[in-house]
Specification:
The complex is a heterodimer of chains A (267) and B (559). With 267 residues, chain A is mainly α. Chain A has one domain: MetI-like fold (Orthogonal Bundle). In chain A, α10 runs antiparallel to α11. Chain A is elongated, with a radius of gyration of 22 Å. Chain B is of the alpha/beta class and 559 residues long. Chain B folds into 2 domains: 256 residues, P-loop containing nucleotide triphosphate hydrolases (Rossmann fold, 3-Layer(aba) Sandwich); 260 residues, 3-Layer(aba) Sandwich (Rossmann fold), CATH 3.40.50. In chain B, 36% of the residues lie in helices and 25% in strands. Chain B has 21 helices and 20 strands. In chain B, strands 6-7-8-3-9-10 form a 6-stranded mixed sheet, sandwiched between helices. A 6-stranded mixed sheet of chain B has the order 16-17-18-13-19-20, sandwiched between helices. In chain B, α14 crosses α15. The longest helix of chain B has 18 residues. The two termini of chain B are 33 Å apart. Classes of the chains: A mainly alpha (267), B alpha/beta (559). Chains A and B meet through α4, α7 and α8 of A and α13, β16, α14 and α16 of B.
Chain lengths: 267, 559
């Protein structure tokens, strides 16, 4: 089997970020939090490779440590929705009927709210921070996975191998878990990569608005926000975290693209 | 009908085509050569993957973007088709040669009235006005024996039946009076009685229009009925070419012999109904009625609006002795598969009941005792859909064994090996995913899975219709042996009377949800009481329509 180039590039890029995040204390020589007023707003090069910010903290160090938060956001931001969404989608598509009708109306109500506004509203109610971010994403984002899994389950429940499983006397739960789920999950696996990208961008946006990770914690979105007043004088404060967001997003996107190719052309 | 001196119309010489894929080049055709004279009907017969469709499409240079012509040429009236430019090809397609396909619904524009689709070619190729094309289209539809052609011309494809759509497609193909019609499996998607009508139509237009036809089919019966000469293909190569008589009566190639011997019409019946003393039937179906409601919705439910109801099975009663075999035949939509599903409990009947050994079963599968579930097993039609693609063969077979605790955990491996032997599969396939098996192997796994539960009654729903004819013969043989050795009570659902005749002692003919005729198989086939049964019997393609004894020499020669 031929492995798509995009998948290789995507995975290498993503793994590179994960490695950097794990090895952050080894790679970076500065403290990501402690301020150093002697070396404020240093341009890139010299002692600070990517320059320093308004309080003299090393940008390279902060970006590497920030990767921990952004990767965590990408991971935990999709775990909740995928579990909740897949469960609802499976049950809804497999049983159909009135249960499906009711669940789908709830889904439509959720979708009809502007996505971003709904996330912000929930975070605002729960208070800023990663925990409320994950809760709000789970409550809003399950719909994508529900729709993907349900559409597959609707087809699969009429598939002959599912009927065969029923004539053999298997229980519904077993059929859903072993016969429907493995065959219904593939589109979600591809989508999860794309979704992780959106999650990072959303998390960064919330950081930018001050609703995400709180300063002085290094998080890319918050860092971009910190640099905005210096954009004309010290461009590096915002630009390098921006590049970091883009490269991780690119890695995940390329992985999604490659994974889609692999799974669709596979045997 | 065709004189030896008629000019040559098509000549294919040493054609070799590869398909470039992500996993390397795949051979589609090798050394394919054949020719046909004007006015001839040439049959190309072969199994799926034999390259017959690629070969006939290449005549119009309708080849996929990833196809690579390695060598060879195709001459149409002496002109090299593969060297033609797009403009010249457009004149060839439609004006000189036209094509019809297996599934007319996917080859028609759903948003265009069919009359316009028939007339479109005339407007493009002959430059006549839409109005004139419209009236000629109506005349053409009339010639295709479409009733009320003026009204039908304004209809859209979805408003027509499958047979009617195929007639429209033939009309569209003939619009610019081509010399050659290429028909790629034109009747495969149709019911047998409709198939017969379409073949009759092709035969008539061929005579009236002095048309040359290339008929591509997997069905030797259809080819033998229609064609003057036959090309037999296998694995991208031509294995044999000759007149129909030569091919049927003195086949030279082993594969051709196997193909002929595999024709279900040639299989000898294996059972006859023996009258037995009155006893409780093993399986009894009494006044079964199944309804499907369409268009039920939350809104309809809230407004208490009655849903649209279709009666799929309407008052059917059947009974079967222990060890007996019953064939249920009928066309698509006749309700035969619904009966099968009601028996195993996959659909809920509205009325009537099903009893095994005199004990009435709960209509809901989940309410039946495990023991009752176990006794009734089913083998499904399409082996590509009936096995979980995520499972290995071993897991597929282990699941029912564990579910019903057929044997202790430690013996499961041995039991699986035993099942594989029963269906004549090697045990080295056990670790393969089901997607890595061929169609015939998959169907055997499907049978083994049903047998795992040691059922008493086995229901086989069109089990061979998705298989190539040589594989079909093997699987039917397997069913016959298993039925005998395991003393199974067998219900065989099929559209093919020949298959039923081979395996079943009694036959039930269904139409529109009702039982039309029911009785011992030999009796029903020899002296059908109902016109519909006679139509079904007449519609089975025979290897010889002339009535000459059915290629006896060929059967004798077969291994």
């Amino acid at each position: 089997m031929q492995i798509p180039v995009t998948l290789v590039i995507g995975i290498v890029l993503t793994l590179a970020w994960i490695a950097l995040a794990l090895l952050a204390p080894v790679v970076a020589h500065y403290d990501p939090i402690k301020t150093d007023v002697q070396h404020m707003l240093q341009p890139p090069g010299g002692e600070h490779w990517l320059g320093s910010d308004a309080t003299g903290r090393d940008l390279f160090t902060r970006i590497i440590f920030g990767a921990r938060y952004d990767l965590a956001m990408a991971f935990f931001g999709v775990v909740g929705p995928i579990i909740l969404g897949t469960m609802i989608g499976l049950v809804s598509g497999y049983f159909g009927g009135r249960l499906d009708a009711v669940l789908m109306r709830i889904l439509e109500v959720t979708i009809s709210f502007p996505y971003f506004v709904l996330v912000i509203a929930i975070v605002a109610v729960l208070g800023p921070g990663l925990k409320s971010y994950f809760i709000s994403l789970t409550l809003v984002n399950w719909v994508s996975y529900t729709r993907l899994v349900r559409s597959q389950a609707l087809v699969l429940r009429e598939a002959d191998f599912v009927l065969a499983a029923r004539t053999m006397g298997l229980r519904h739960g077993r059929i859903m878990l072993y016969h429907i789920l493995p065959n219904a999950i593939i589109p979600s696996v591809v989508f999860v990569m794309t979704d992780a990208v959106l999650t990072i961008v959303l998390g960064s946006s919330l950081g930018f608005l001050g609703l995400g990770v709180q300063p002085p914690t290094p998080e890319w979105g918050a860092m971009i926000a910190e640099g905005q007043t210096y954009l004309t004088t010290a461009w590096w404060i915002s630009v390098f975290p921006g590049v970091a967001v883009c490269s991780l997003a690119m890695g995940l996107s390329l992985s999604a693209d490659g994974l889609a190719r692999l799974l669709h052309t596979g045997p | 009908m065709v004189t030896e001196t008629a000019p040559e119309l098509v000549r294919v010489e040493n054609l070799a085509i590869d398909f470039a894929t992500a996993y390397g080049d795949v051979v589609a055709l090798r050394d394919v050569s054949f020719s046909m004279r004007r006015g001839e009907v040439l049959g190309i017969v072969g199994e799926s993957g034999s390259g017959k469709t690629v070969a006939c499409r290449a005549i119009l240079k309708l080849i996929a973007a990833n196809a690579r012509v390695k060598s060879g040429r195709i001459l149409f009236e002496g002109q090299d088709v593969l060297g033609l430019e797009e403009t010249a090809l457009r004149h060839l397609r439609g004006e000189q040669a036209a094509m019809i396909f297996q599934n007319p619904s996917t080859h028609m524009d759903p948003l265009m009235a069919v009359g316009r689709q028939v007339g479109e070619g005339m407007v493009l190729h002959e430059g006549i006005s839409w109005k004139e094309a419209g009236s000629r289209a109506v005349a053409l539809l009339d010639d295709m024996r479409i009733v009320d052609p003026e009204r039908r011309a304004r209809a859209y494809p979805h408003q027509l039946s499958g047979g009617m759509r195929q007639r429209v497609m033939i009309a569209a193909a003939l619009a610019c009076k081509p010399k050659l019609l290429i028909a790629d499996e034109p009747t495969t998607a149709l019911d047998v009685t409709v198939q017969k009508q379409i073949l009759d139509l092709l035969r008539r237009i061929r005579a009236e229009r002095r048309l040359s036809i290339i008929l591509v089919s997997h069905d030797l019966g259809v080819v033998a009925e229609m064609c003057d000469r036959v090309v037999v293909m296998k694995d991208g190569r031509v294995v044999e070419t000759g007149s129909v008589e030569q091919i049927l009566e003195a086949p030279q190639d082993d594969y051709t012999r196997r193909l002929i011997a595999s024709q279900p019409a040639l299989l000898k019946p294996t059972v006859t109904l023996r009258p037995t003393a009155e006893e409780t039937p093993h399986l009894a179906i009494d006044q079964l009625e199944v309804e499907f409601s369409a268009g039920s919705s939350l809104v309809g439910w809230a407004l208490r609006r009655p849903p649209h109801v279709v009666k799929a099975v309407d008052g059917v009663s059947l009974s079967l002795r222990r060890g007996g075999s019953l064939g249920i035949v009928g066309e698509s939509g006749s309700g035969k598969s619904t009966i099968a599903r009601a028996i195993v409990g996959l659909v809920h009947p509205q009325a009537g009941h099903i009893a095994v050994d005199g004990e009435v079963l709960n209509p809901a599968l989940g309410r039946r005792r495990p023991e009752q579930q176990r006794k009734l097993q089913m083998v499904f039609q399409d082996p590509f859909l009936s096995l979980n693609p995520a499972f290995s063969v071993a897991r597929t077979l282990a699941e029912p064994l564990r579910q019903h605790r057929i044997c202790p955990e430690a013996e499961i491996g041995a039991r699986i090996a035993e099942l594989m032997a029963k269906v004549e599969l090697p045990t080295n396939l056990l670790e393969r995913r089901t997607t890595q098996l061929s169609g015939g192997q998959r169907q055997r796994v499907g049978i083994a899975r049903a047998l795992a539960l040691e059922p008493e009654i086995l229901i086989a729903d069109e089990v061979t219709s998705a298989l190539d004819v040589t594989i079909q013969a093997q699987v039917l043989g397997l069913f016959e042996r298993l039925r005998r050795e395991l003393s199974l009570t067998l219900i065989l659902i099929s559209h093919d009377l020949a298959v039923v005749r081979y395996l079943c002692e009694q036959v039930a003919v269904m139409r529109n949800g009702r039982l039309v005729e029911h009785g011992p198989t030999d009796l029903v086939l020899q002296e059908p009481r109902e016109q519909y049964t006679s139509d079904l019997i007449a519609a089975i393609p025979r290897l010889r329509s002339s009535g000459i004894p059915v290629a006896r020499s060929a059967v004798a020669a077969a291994p």
